[in-house]
Design goal:
The protein is α/β, with parallel strands linked by helices. Helices cover about 50% and strands about 15% of the residues.
């Protein structure tokens, strides 16, 4: 799968669920529930115990229908491990040039984090195609994203941190390419209790919110 293929698949659904779980079993159940809710894109963070084993297992089980990436990738060693496990994209909380170099050498998509205009410019200078704005919610949420899109209208941004179904439409209206969603989608208590239906329903509602916001944005442009 090419980098452009991965970008298209992320853009099509417009959501990147961030899966953090205490066990391999919980992570696998979270992936199952999210996919059932209509989001065939997942980011397994390196904070999950035995994360690379989880990525390998999830890719084996769901890789034919879902796009699996790795999150919280902060070193070149982690980047190599995740790609070897089958991750199609790497997400980082900040900008790591060694991670970008590994991704580039392996022809994989790297999505580094940025927050300030200076960090965003630095990412663009290093050829980054998608940029995670994190933690976006702490600096004003959709309004902050909109303020970034002013001087950077062509930047392809994925706000993460504080994103949920109630503000998803505002983020799309502000110019988000896709939304990074963590605990508000993968509810830790529901996961521990085995209540996968709650997570599946949350995924469905998020898909509907993004789809509706995109339709409205398209209508307003006409």
């Amino acid at each position: 799968m090419t980098i452009d293929d991965v970008i298209r698949r992320i853009g099509k659904i417009g959501i990147v669920p961030v899966v953090r779980a205490a066990t391999v079993e919980d992570a696998t159940r979270a992936v199952e529930a999210i996919c059932a809710g209509g989001i065939p894109v997942l980011e397994i963070t390196m904070t999950v115990p035995n994360a690379t084993s989880v990525i390998r297992h999830v890719v084996r089980e769901y890789g034919s229908t879902a796009l699996i990436g790795a999150g919280t990738v902060t070193t070149s060693e982690q980047a190599n491990q995740c790609i070897a496990a089958g991750a199609e994209f790497l997400v980082s909380p900040g900008l790591s040039l060694p991670v970008l170099e590994v991704a580039r050498a392996c022809a994989k998509l790297a999505i580094p984090g940025a927050l300030t205009p200076t960090e965003l410019m630095h990412a663009q200078d290093n050829g980054v195609k998608l940029i995670k704005i994190f933690p976006c919610g702490n600096l004003g949420g959709p309004k902050y994203l909109q303020s970034l899109k002013g001087p950077f209208p062509d930047a392809v941004l994925i706000p993460t941190g504080g994103v949920n179904v109630s503000n998803a439409a505002d983020y799309i209206a502000a110019g988000a390419f896709a939304l990074g969603v963590g605990g508000d989608l993968v509810n830790a208590s529901a996961l521990r209790a085995g209540n996968l239906a709650e997570i599946t329903q949350a995924a469905r509602e998020l898909v509907q919110a993004v789809h509706g916001a995109r339709e409205l944005a398209a209508a307003l442009k006409c």
